[in-house]
Amino acid sequence: MSLLGVQSLVYGVDDLDAAVRFHDDFGLVAVRRDPDAVDYALEDGSTVVLRRNDDPALPARFTTAPGVREVIWGVDTPAALNALRANLSGDRKVAVDADGTLHTRDDNGIAIGFRLFARKSLEAIASTENAPGDIRRWNTHRRWVKRAVPRCMNHVVFGVPDVDRAMAFYIHRLGFKLSDVSRGLGVFMRCDGRNEHHSVFFLKTGIIAWHHVAYGVQNVDEVMVGADHMQRRGWKSDLGIGRHRIGSSVFYYLTNPAGGMSEYSADTDYLTDDWQPRLWEPRFGNWHWLGKVPDAFMSEPDWDVSIIADTNKSFSELSGNAPPVKAMNG
Ligand SMILES: [Fe+2]
What we know:
Elements: E1 3-13, H1 16-26, E2 29-34, E3 37-41, E4 47-52, E5 67-75, H2 78-89, E6 95-96, E7 102-105, E8 111-116, E9 152-160, H3 163-173, E10 177-182, E11 186-190, E12 200-204, E13 209-216, H4 220-232, E14 241-243, E15 250-255, E16 261-266, E17 278-280, H5 282-286, E18 305-307, H6 315-319
Parallel strand pairs: 1-4, 5-8, 9-12, 10-17, 13-16
Antiparallel strand pairs: 1-5, 2-3, 3-4, 6-7, 7-8, 9-13, 10-11, 11-12, 14-15, 15-16, 17-18
The chain binds fe (ii) ion.
């Protein structure tokens, strides 16, 4: 079986006009614009679906705040989809659409679905960097870009009270791979058929909460161009641009009127099964880079990261006596 990442992210929104304006400005391409339904498609064939909160076709809400109502994961083969249906039907209700899409809940109550996904491969765009002693570009300027172009969804993030339960379900029932653990903060996992550092991150929070989605863009230039454009259009970011140590990605988070945040993400790590998961001190993993340094980062974090010797341990066991961490982005 292979899961190929998020095939569709389904929002239920209070203000559809604002949500559409945001996603248009963000750089997504609409493929359906009806009064109560707007769909966007990315280059790899995945979709972002906006519906009104009271749309009867949406699954019941699992969060108190508006936001994502369902994550539909892409599946590579009919046999894999059937195997998932048989497995999950053993201990939960699984509804099946006419097109074969499965709808159910994960062990924390988050609405999830599964659908066949012929994910399109992305065309390579050459992007070369110069550095002292390592000159790759002679008599050539960098590729100039006018707008950020989100090309795929790299990951989604939820807050859950029980991260152990999320980790067990996604690894043992859905075949996700453990990427890294941030001590006391949360768990990064990736689909078995995707290589970005993480496909999902579960943050430890008091209640179930939708947090953010990250869109892969070409490089740091596009993150900056996207940040400029979104600010000119009146959208807000709390953190500015930075780079995580966990996963290496450059980030820019924007508050999304559809709920939670949307992130431009560039230069993430890509992992294979040879990867050895690591245990991080949360502040050390976050590594803020540009703009105003948040209060929590005004003191230098400890240099605290190690390979996880026993990947069968739960998040709680790996976190030990680490105090609960105030939620940070990932
Ligand atoms: Fe992220």
